[in-house]
Amino acid sequence: MTNSLPLSVAIGTGLLLALTLAAGESVAVTPGGNGVIAFIRSVNNEFDIFTMNVDGSGEINITNHPANDTNPAWSPDGTRMAFTSNRDGNTEIYVMNEDGSAQTRLTSNSVADFQPAWSPDGTKIAFVSDRASNFEIYLMNPDGSGQERLTNLPGSDAAPAWSPDGERIAFNRNNEIFVMAADGSGETNLTNSVAVDINPSWSPDGTRIAFTSTRDGNAEVYSMNTDGTGQTNLTSNPADDQTPVWAPDGSALVFESNRDGNNEIYRMNPDGTGQTRITNNQVYDCCSDWQPLRLAGDVNCDGNVNAIDAAIILQFNAGLTASLPCESSGDVNGDGQINSLDAALVLQFDAGLIGQLPP
Q1: What DSSP state is assigned to residue 248?
Q2: Phi then psi dihedrals of residue 72, to 5 deg
Q3: For the residues of 66-79, what is the DSSP string, one character each?
Q4: If one looks up domain 7-27+296-350 in CATH, what number appears?
Q5: Which of 109, 153, 169, 270 has a CA that sits 20 to 30 A from residue 34's CA?
Q6: Who's near 145: CB < 8 A, 6+ residues apart?
Q7: Tell me, which fold does domain 33-293 have in CATH?
Q8: Beta bridge mates, 212
Q9: Which of 312, 313, 297 is nearest to 349 (CA)?
Q10: Domain range annotation of the chain
């Protein structure tokens, strides 16, 4: 935090208002764009995590380890990925950079810890563990500290999925989709079906939940309102279609299907139209997660770049706040620092004085 203007000089009357608004703002994370797709592929009888472009090109094995690496989960700023691995003898949760470097173990338990899911503000990771002799949902900090149990019932709880505002978590319990508050309270059954309903995925605008259901005799991808109403079959295929994941901007979903004789990754529109195969090989591909890309300057992660972001940058620069919700978006001018110069660029962009921010 150097090369900064005095706070009294940097903040004008309009920005002081924005600073006041930002101080009481509830941050809801909405990504700025769609990055690469992470997925699992069977390689030499083991699972590795790959990334690829949206059209299936540019496949890269980013774990490349002689163990089972599964459950890829992007951080909300798209710079890191949590995942599950049994490389140390039992199933644990790890984290790595987006290119696969700096693979670091977060949990260290004699039982299975798996299915990590980042909170939208990046401050927590929900995960599943059977450390209490049945599968329950837990929370921890991104460095693995502060592990705490959220659910506490005899049933099997799995597949946590955060709402975009970070206030609720959808999950499956005994083959039903439930939702609860982020502190574990207020559990509600959304599906109430005799079929298997699993793998919830919350739409980025917070209005829909996609999930897998067997109510039609085979696995299909469904979508419903967040109160459980409006349950609709999106795939309608005699094969097995499952594990839907939304694009960060809400424009599409990816899912896995064996409709062409081999398990592959597919893409479709939110209404189920335009189903297109992305991967095409003779091995097993599944279990995707779509990388969110942040807008430069969008430090509060709301999908916009405006005076509120500039205010938050100035708060950070003045030491009034210790961190930024989307810190990777703060260095607007690319000089390796986050300071009033970045805030000034954001204000110029918001006022229409410059057409775009530096890449």
Answers
A1: T
A2: -65, 135
A3: SS-EEEEEE-TTSS
A4: 1.10.1330.10
A5: 169
A6: none
A7: Neuraminidase (2.120.10)
A8: 198, 221
A9: 297
A10: 7-27+296-350, 33-293
Burial class (CB within 10 angstroms; exposed 0-12, middle 13-18, buried 19+) of 259 = middle
* DSSP states along 13-26: HHHHHHHHHHHT--
Measured distance CA(140)–CA(231) in Å, rounded: 32
Over its length of 359 residues, how does the chain's per-residue pLDDT go in tens digits? 333 333 333 334 333 333 333 333 333 344 457 899 999 999 888 999 999 999 999 999 999 999 999 999 999 889 999 999 999 999 999 999 999 999 999 999 899 999 999 999 899 999 999 998 899 999 999 999 999 999 998 889 999 999 999 999 999 999 999 999 999 999 999 999 999 999 999 999 999 999 999 999 999 999 999 999 999 999 999 999 999 999 998 999 999 999 999 999 999 999 999 999 999 999 999 999 999 987 788 888 776 788 999 999 999 999 998 888 777 788 888 888 999 999 999 999 888 888 887 76
* Phi then psi dihedrals of residue 12, to 5 deg: -90, -175
Task: Compute the distance between CA of residue 100 and CA of residue 21 in angstroms, rounded to an integer.
Answer: 38
Helix axes of 307-317 and 340-350: crossing angle, nearest 10 degrees: 170
